[in-house]
Amino acid sequence: MTFSRRDREPAGRLIADRYRLVERVGAGGEGVVWRALDERTGRTVAAKQAKMSATGAGRKLRREARLAASVDHPNVVVYHEIVSDHDELWLIQEYVPSRTLAAVLTERPLPEAEVAEIGVRLASALAAVHERKILHRDLKPGNVLIGEDGRVKLTDFGISRSVAADETLTDAALYAGTPGYLAPEVARGDPPTEASDVFSLGATLYAALEGSPMFAGETPLARVRRAADGDIPMSRAAGELAAPLARMLDPDPALRPSAAEAAAALAACPGKVAPARRGRRHRFRRPIGVAAGIAAVAAGMLSAGTPATPAPFDARALDPCRLTDTAALRSYGRTELEPDYGNFNRCDVLLHRGDGTFTDVKVELKSHPGNPPDGELKRVGAFDVVGGPLQDDKCARLILVPEGYLVAVTASDDPGAPVDLCAIADVATDSATKALSRDGNPLRKGKFPARSLAEVDACALLDPAAPEVPGPPQPYFGRWSCNFEGPAVRVRVIFDRGHPLDDEDGAYSTEAGREIRTAADDYGPGTCRSTIAYRPYTDIDNIPMLESVLIVVNGDPPSARLCGPATILAGEVARRLP
Q1: What InterPro entries does the record tag this protein with (predicted)?
Q2: By the 8 A CB rule, do 458 and 343 touch?
Q3: What is the mean pLDDT of the segment spanning 240-269?
């Protein structure tokens, strides 16, 4: 394919009256990939270009878009639409600031634990692809994106095939795939299958461990011949991954695991990073004072009791993760974005220090209290920011957004941690203000999952006339939390995302078929908390998680006497949940 001057230097060009090209970021399959700005929504997208005049390129691009768009999985790049502009087709997809795994491997092989993590996510993504009756057919390091925030994304469905549609490609090569990652049966000319994709996944993990593909140094034809003969080497660096890797690379496709089985086997390997880091993130046990629920930056500045006020924006359309910049925080440790923990107005960046500990940088969207918050006021970019000193191993900042809401940025860690939490909070705040200046309101890219609590009104789950409800509802941001307050008692309904419930979460009961756990003083002194299990899900690390509703009753001690009302209210909420 050849490109005109316009192709080589189109920065600033507007595609389909909507997408403004910013910079060329790579090339893949049949097209060039650009970072672009969607001028209608303000979001950054990737735009993949193909000449309609190029043989088969337009047809391949349309097929890639149709197949990839049918897969909904956090480890598969999101495909938005196909647009045409003059003699070109453009595939608009999710933009992931990243490098390919192939680029990463030019610098070094990866340690066993990191390869296991990548493998779990890719296998989970591949299982979702296979569930849609699609074969990827070219899984290799060049088609795996490693995001700056640690995300892993499977991309490039350019030669994928729908088994359900029984697609055939008249312009297909003798075999589909890349030498060094071909399954033996495909190298021999047999049709690819789901088992062939699993082999390619195993070959990708082999390359990640060794730093180079199988049969490195040989010609492409020699690699194909070695694969066809079933001459499959094993990685010397596999360690605990040796057993699952051997199954994925078995020359006999009938003996290979499914993608879902491979994900489970990799997740069970000792030394996996994600379960270790998750062990420190407790669902509750949050102090009730300055840091409860919202990030207060100094005594008296803004408490969890501050109710929401009407605002001229759609709170549920905003995404706090779009205000984070993991690259800006890298000097403080390995960064990891955690978009699905806590309430829906929250996004976290974890800064791993390498010893199993981490700093948590939390970004939350809050309704404005109506009065200016107390604290030290300064100007950061185009925004007023209220700050304060380190307090209770937390340092927080409040960004005052003119549209009528606040962005709370909080850096927290264990007591005595060797980090400057206020410096970290300042860096994260600077990134958030730059994102707000550049993109405006941080609009959410996609819809919430089906049946998610994100679509439920927390204030509608309790009857204000019930004797246990002490006052009228006061909604918080997005109506994902609600406060009912009286002279002596306060009741809060709070949506949460965290680990599945167990005995550590309190006494067990059920109502309307839903599990409930109740514990006194779990949400701070003078509280009783009941948790209603709602929707199980898996997070971006493929770890089982749970959406739940918290009922927190505050009052005078002894706290145990508050658990009766908490249990009654939890039962009412369980019956009202959709």
Answers
A1: Kinase-like_dom_sf, Prot_kinase_dom, Ser/Thr_kinase_AS
A2: no
A3: 92
